[in-house]
Specification:
heterotrimer; A alpha/beta; B alpha/beta; C alpha/beta; A: alpha/beta; Aldehyde Dehydrogenase, Chain A, domain 1; 2 domains; seven-stranded mixed beta sheet; C: alpha/beta; Rossmann fold; LuxE (chain C); long-chain fatty acid--protein ligase activity (chain C); ANL_N_sf (chain C); Acyl-CoA synthetase (AMP-forming) AMP-acid ligse II (chain C); SDR_fam (chain B)
Chain lengths: 493, 255, 373
């Protein structure tokens, strides 16, 4: 990195960990990020398994002493206050996030700013209430015993402490998991990835402003994924483990989690979009193309919600081939507007290899065409005249398949069933639910409008399952117990 | 770059306007076929200059009046690049623009007319005839024919030259009407007196001064002016423009 | 004029003879450029898929004026296309990749004649592997030509022994597996007689051999000047081996020092080999250098993975390989190997793996892998 000799460098310390009060750490590592004349020195603790156990004990204590006594409504209200802080452009934590996250992640600064702004609003009170409501008929069941239709009185308990293993692909995404756990009154031990260790720490600082006791129920710190002794300590000390990330990361940790404990995993997923001929009328086709690219370009397809493949139906006023060309131009435009992150050699080479494969294929096969940015790997569109399905090496690389009828798409999805997730869909109302039904059978768990794929809504059954319910266990007090208890009321008549 | 990796044939580009167009195309990233008929060394010089500037070009010989030679030239281009994106019909029979020695209506012969028609219209026809099948298969192509503003404003009546250039504009329009559906655009450029070139060096100073006086921009056209318009017509900047004649003469002719 | 197949082979053969042991690529540069351009012209005319690929890249002999601008055939082309300047004859020798990474697609490199290939193999082997002698005992740990006629490495091992092996040399592996007792016997003989030996094999051969010797608790004090030759890598094998662990094991098991370990870079798709320079430098009393050198008929460039333009010296990128000996297919190849080059030589850091996705999306390779299981 070049620096002016004359300029003085100012060093700003930033902690990328957050501990409950009472935990003292002594051994630290540092990483420096330079922005202009400023050096941000990121400090993180280097911990031992014993420290993990100690942190978990503290979390467990704080959960029992404080969090377990809050009602769900109170918790939501405190989170809402913290979220509100983030809606102010001048909020220091927000400014720091907007400044550092593009540097840490490599994502375009404007994208980060826009997406964080949108994302944080997903956790406002009304949204969280919807979220809880969508899974629990009686959210208060987390606070106290409530009568059930069966006659029993039931209360739900979350884990006392939960261990989260975050991946760093999407900035901020970690707080989804943290908030989920907090709502079920679980304290959280979050292991961040060095590719995005910042946002959950900043959010916990916001919680501390609202309620220091609540913030004390969270501990966030990074370590290198796969550090066996730390992960073993964390999985056996906590009551539940939630892992985000690759199958490799998953396999290693799954081994460590005792059978009796809750284990949830959100792993590799593929998403795609489908464009019906009715979205390709002269009036709409340009807008359709623009929205389809939004799903590809935001966070460079690193999110599992991003489209990797686009099916384009024949019979619209614009042919699938022309749509592919238009998608290519829109990617080129997007590159000017918000450039893609720089790639590692492995990532870039994967794009080069994909291009080579299909360019060679195109020599003998006029059904394949490659449209690609010139002189770099910024974006790539591979057009296929015949339908199929394949995932992409990401980083703004898409496959476009022409298809006679969108109703045929599920045939091509079969081999990928276990990996399918979201589908961006642009069709007319009369086809929407029959297609949705077909896609549901094929394994897709979420359908959204084009351009909205990367912005999941609270209440979404993440990867097709419950968010809160899977963390809960229930206690039923049968009616006979109540009746029997009544007998022992000395005053009963 | 506006013409990156597009294959462009510029006929008669070993010198003058043609050479300038070739160099300008190369600067915009085109792979330029520098066509010549006699002066290999001048064509090589143009290619050398392009290569030194980091461009891509090669010299290719063919007399555009000879259908067999043209066929061979286009075959060679196709064999090497499996495509041809841009043709500039710039070659002409050598013509000297000298008002004092020009042929009058009585001294001129039909053969003079015939020679100009051969060089201009037949030459363009030969090249287009071979290039169009390639462009049609690509569903894309640009043809630019070099006309003259004398067609509209025969300031000095070079009969044979003006007649041939007028025919070339008709040829341009008619062809544009036919091949537009194949994604091929055909246009013409009509430069004013372009100075300096080999053809115009004999145009005397007083004539040049009188043209300058009449010209709104108060100057003669230079080869780079024409090359700029050629880049425009060869590139996406002129999408959906076809059958037109662009006057590059400082506003001497206005429509 | 475009050369004929015979003419171009003769030109290349002549080039190899002329520059057989030339270290300084500057000396051969203008001849290399001339022959490379002639070769590209020949291949463009006679190797239709290469021509089509070149055309699609808008490259042709008309505008390719230096070897650096010859279009690079992506290495996948050897799987997807039939790349041969001469019509492929029935029973024509062809080298195929072992296809460990993708068993359905194997690279094919056709060899209607081995005249150039043999010359290209012979001189650098002498120069880099046997700088101190003309013959030695070579113990082959990779199946020979007879066992696997479609392997370029098998032919290489067989030829190495033909050209440079003494009467104690042999190949100790065939379709039935490795002849461990034979190897142990040969090593003991050498040890006893004070006769230096060369072990010659693929990287994974050593993993198995070292495991066996370790189990049997066998170690050797091989005589001075013994050496260990290795090629390939340890990736994709049943287990990976750390380089330093390997050197330690070699030292402890065979008494062969790091400076007598030599690695060769070669592959099915090319017809020449590059070698570590440590042995040649050691025996010529030059400062040690473990980077690789290419023979005069090969050029290596390191290209940015993003732009495919050359990177600065010392930066990592994809290896582009220009090989005059590859006269029958493509003179220029874009490999999938990452490398680093400086003024002394280049290093290969390994095959580009499927990109590790940062998050929850699947990289192509990982998915392929998942579907195979």
């Amino acid at each position: 990195m070049k620096r002016t000799v004359m300029g003085t460098i100012k060093v700003i310390p930033v902690d990328i960990f957050k501990m409950p009060r009472g935990i003292t750490l002594t051994n630290f590592g540092y990483q420096t990020i330079t922005i202009g004349q400023l050096d941000y020195s990121l400090r993180f603790p280097i911990v031992t398994p014993d420290a993990i156990v100690e942190i978990n004990d503290r979390l467990r204590h704080n959960q029992a002493a404080y969090l377990s006594h809050l009602t769900v409504a109170e918790i939501i209200s405190k989170i809402d206050q913290a979220v509100n802080l983030w809606t102010h452009p001048d909020y220091p934590q927000r400014r720091l996030a907007m400044k550092l996250l593009p540097q840490i992640t490599g994502y375009n600064a404007e994208t980060v700013e826009l997406e964080i702004k949108r994302f944080i609003r997903v956790f406002r009170k009304k949204e969280l209430m919807r979220f809880v409501d969508s899974e629990l008929d009686q959210p208060e069941i987390l606070d106290d015993f409530h009568p059930q239709k069966s006659g029993s009185m039931t209360k739900a308990f979350g884990p006392e402490t939960t261990f989260h293993v975050f991946s760093g692909n999407i900035p901020g995404l970690q707080i989804w998991s943290l908030i989920m756990a907090t709502i079920v009154k679980s304290a959280s031990l979050g292991k961040t990835s060095m590719s995005e260790p910042l946002f959950p720490v900043l959010f916990d600082q916001s919680l501390a402003e609202v309620s220091p006791e609540l913030a004390d129920c969270l501990a966030i710190l990074p370590w290198k994924g796969g550090t066996m002794n730390l992960e073993e300590a964390a999985t056996s000390a906590t009551d539940a483990t939630i892992v985000y990330g690759s199958d490799t990361a998953l396999d290693a940790i799954k081994e460590l989690v005792p059978k009796s404990k809750i284990f949830l995993h959100y792993g590799y997923k593929i998403s795609f979009s489908m464009i019906g001929r009715e979205a390709l009328t002269p009036e709409y086709y340009l807008q359709t193309v623009k929205q389809a690219i939004e799903d590809v370009a935001v966070y460079d397809q690193q999110s599992c919600l991003s489209a990797q493949t686009i099916f384009v139906e024949k019979g619209g006023t614009t042919s699938p081939l022309n749509v592919a060309k238009l998608l290519a131009s829109e990617l080129a435009n997007y590159q000017l507007k918000r450039p893609r992150a720089e790639l590692t050699n492995e990532q870039a080479a994967a794009v080069v290899r994909l291009r080579n494969d299909y360019q060679l294929k195109a020599l003998n096969d006029s059904d394949v065409q490659v449209f690609a940015s010139d002189g770099n790997t910024d974006w790539t569109v591979v057009y296929h005249a015949h339908p199929g399905f394949v995932n992409s090496p990401l980083n703004r690389t898409i496959h476009v398949y022409a298809i006679d009828e969108l109703e045929q798409v599920p045939e091509y999805l079969q081999p990928f069933k276990q990996y399918l997730q979201s589908c961006g869909l642009a069709v007319k109302p009369t086809r929407l639910f029959s297609l949705a039904n077909q896609l549901g059978r094929a394994g897709i768990d979420r359908i959204s409008a084009l351009g909205e794929m990367t912005r999941a809504k609270p209440g979404w059954h993440h990867d097709g399952h419950f968010n809160l319910l899977d963390l809960l266990r229930f206690i039923d007090v049968e009616q006979n117990t109540e009746r029997a208890a009544e007998k022992f009321d000395p005053d009963v008549e | 770059m506006l013409l990156k990796n597009q294959v462009a044939l510029v006929t008669g580009s070993s010198r003058g306007i043609g050479a300038t167009i070739a160099k300008q195309f190369a600067k915009e990233g085109a792979i330029v076929a520098v066509n010549f008929v006699k002066h290999q060394e001048r064509a090589d010089q143009v290619v050398r200059e392009i290569l030194e500037g980091g461009g891509q070009a090669f010299a290719i010989k063919a007399d555009v009046r000879d259908p067999v030679a043209v066929q061979e030239m286009i075959r060679k281009i196709k064999d090497n690049f499996n495509g041809l994106d841009i043709v500039v019909n710039n070659a002409l029979n050598h013509y000297t623009f000298n008002p004092k020695t020009r042929k009058t209506d009585q001294s001129i012969t039909w053969q003079d007319y015939q020679d100009q028609l051969d060089g201009n219209v037949h030459g363009s026809f030969n090249v287009c005839h071979e290039a169009l099948p390639i462009m049609k298969s690509q569903n894309r192509g640009r043809i630019i024919n070099m006309a003259s503003n004398l067609v509209e404003f025969p300031l000095i009546p070079y009969h044979d030259y003006i007649t041939a250039k007028t025919a070339l504009i008709g040829y341009t329009r008619s062809l544009a009407a036919e091949v537009g559906a194949f994604g091929i655009q055909v246009n013409a450029i009509a430069p004013g007196l372009t100075y300096p070139t080999d053809s115009s060096v004999e145009t005397q100073n007083d004539v040049r001064e009188s043209i300058i006086n009449m010209t709104p921009t108060k100057r003669l056209t230079v080869p780079e002016d024409v090359a700029g318009s050629a880049v425009f017509l060869a590139s996406r900047l002129s999408n959906n423009v076809t059958g037109q004649c662009l006057y590059v003469d400082g506003g001497l002719v206005m429509h | 004029m475009t050369k004929t197949s015979t003419e171009i082979q003769n030109d290349i053969y002549q080039f190899i003879q002329t520059y057989a042991t030339t270290d300084d690529q500057q000396l051969s540069e203008s001849d290399f450029n001339r022959v490379a351009l002639d070769l590209f012209d020949y291949q463009f005319k006679s190797n239709l898929p290469y021509k089509r690929y070149a055309q699609s890249q808008r490259k042709s002999p008309l505008i390719v004026n230096n070897w650096q601008s010859i279009p690079l055939m992506p290495i996948q082309g050897y799987k997807q296309l039939t790349l041969s300047t001469t019509p492929v004859q029935k029973d024509e020798p062809v080298f195929m990749s072992s296809g460990t990474t993708d068993p359905n697609h194997r690279s094919h490199n056709y060899h209607p004649s081995f005249k150039v290939w043999d010359a290209s193999m012979k001189y650098p082997f002498k120069q880099f592997v046997l700088p101190d002698r003309d013959k030695m005992t070579i113990l082959g740990l990779f199946p020979g030509e007879k066992t696997n006629s479609n392997s370029s490495l098998s032919r290489y091992v067989t030829k190495a022994i033909d050209f440079f092996g003494d009467d104690k040399s042999g190949i100790f592996i065939d379709e039935n597996g490795m002849d461990y007792q034979g190897i142990v016997g040969a090593l003991k003989d050498a040890e006893r007689q004070g006769r230096p030996v060369m072990l010659l094999g693929a990287s994974f051969s050593y993993v198995h051999l070292l495991d066996y010797l370790n189990e049997q608790k066998l170690t050797f004090k091989l005589p001075v000047d013994s050496r260990l030759f290795d090629t390939g890598g340890f990736k994709g094998q049943s287990r990976s081996v750390d380089a330093q662990d390997l050197f330690d094991a070699i030292k402890n098991t065979f008494n062969i020092d790091r400076d007598h370990y030599i690695n060769m870079y070669g592959m099915t798709e090319i017809s020449s080999q590059c070698y570590d320079q440590n042995l040649v430098r050691l025996y010529h009393h030059l400062p040690l250098d473990y980077t690789k050198a290419a023979p005069a008929w090969v050029r290596v460039r390191i290209l940015s993975t993003d732009t495919l333009q050359p990177v600065e010296s010392g930066h990592a990128g994809l290896i582009a390989y220009y090989d005059l000996a590859n006269w029958n297919s493509c003179v220029a190849i874009l490999t999938e190997d990452m490398g680093i080059q400086d003024e002394n030589g280049f290093e290969v850091s390994g095959r580009v793996q499927g990109a590790e996705a940062k998050g929850c999306s699947i990289a192509v390779d990982q998915l392929l892998h998942a579907n195979q299981m």
